UniProtKB/TrEMBL annotation:
Domain of life (superkingdom): Bacteria
InterPro entries in alphabetical order: HD/PDEase_dom, HD_domain
Gene3D superfamilies: 1.10.3210.50
Pfam families xrefs: HD
SUPFAM superfamilies for this protein: HD-domain/PDEase-like
Domain HD/PDEase intervals: 41-163
Coiled-coil zones: none
Name of this chain's protein: HD/PDEase domain-containing protein
Length: 266
């Protein structure tokens, strides 16, 4: 279980439910306006953000945590994508999570008296870390945001997102469609000219390795039907390609995913 109770996750005593909804609506609108200025990125558009907000709410509900502050963080977690894209176009590299975090204080400034400095810093920290693997010092807020984001890379929506993210890649390596991409190091060898099947397996790794991703019990439970679908998809793909199903069964990511699925359904 993730540890409970950190002050910024508690409902603010002076905020009425109506005011909280107003703040969430205003933050959501702020995020929408930022995404409206970006070119369409099917993988990271406002619908991704909306799904991450929804996942955040579901995780908080399952964990028995007030979702107000986590939802604020979810709305803002990817707002720095535009700067990342612009930097890429100029041949520079910036990290969208850090860029998003930089923009958090300005967006939350109107609500600073109500939210407090500590909460704004906590949201900033969660946004800055949202795409890094789970770390020992991650707060509950950070864990929830990471899990909510990664859930959106699993299941049906994960299929579309992974394939849309790498349109330039071959679908699979004809020499070895299910070549192993089980560890980050191994995966790195495939990055660049890796296949879409490898990218798909890499998304599955967000579930298969409970040390780094999908660490909250509720997110793990929500991931189960998504990952079952992904495993079935790989077996079906093997059938269609005329590859023995054993080739799928021996992929370490698949084995680890099946092991975690079994532990969650027992
Ligand atoms: Fe992100
Ligand atoms: Fe995201």
């Amino acid at each position: 279980m993730v540890e409970k109770e950190t002050s910024f996750l508690e409902p603010h005593p002076n905020l009425s439910p109506e005011r909280r909804n107003q703040i969430l609506a205003a933050v959501g609108l702020g995020a929408r306006r930022i995404f409206d200025q970006m070119p369409l990125l099917p993988v990271h558009d406002i619908t991704h953000v909306e799904r991450v907000v929804k996942n955040t709410r579901a995780i908080c509900q399952g964990e028995g945590i007030d979702s107000f502050i986590p939802e604020v963080a979810a709305w803002l977690h990817d707002i720095g994508r535009l700067q990342e894209i612009q930097a890429q176009a100029d041949g520079k590299k910036i990290y969208h999570a850090e860029e998003s975090a930089k923009q958090v204080p300005a967006i939350l400034e109107p609500f600073k008296p109500e939210l407090g400095e500590e909460t704004i810093i906590a949201v900033q920290d969660a946004v800055a870390r949202h795409s890094l693997p789970n770390a020992e010092n991650d707060s509950q807020l950070v864990k929830i945001l990471k899990d909510a984001d990664k859930l959106d890379g699993l299941g049906s929506i994960g299929f579309f997102r992974v394939f849309a993210f790498y349109p330039e890649r071959p679908i699979y390596n004809p020499q070895n469609p299910f070549e192993d991409g089980s560890t980050s190091e191994e995966y790195l060898r495939y990055s660049g000219q890796s296949s879409q099947v490898q990218a798909f397996l890499r998304n599955m790794e967000w579930f298969s390795d409970p040390r780094f991703w999908i660490v909250t019990p509720t997110a793990a439970r929500l991931a189960v039907p998504r990952v079952k679908l992904m495993v079935d998809f790989l077996y079906q793909l093997a059938d269609e390609l005329g590859v023995p199903q054993g080739e799928v069964s021996k992929i370490p990511i698949v084995q680890a995913s099946q092991k975690r699925l079994a532990s969650l359904s027992s």
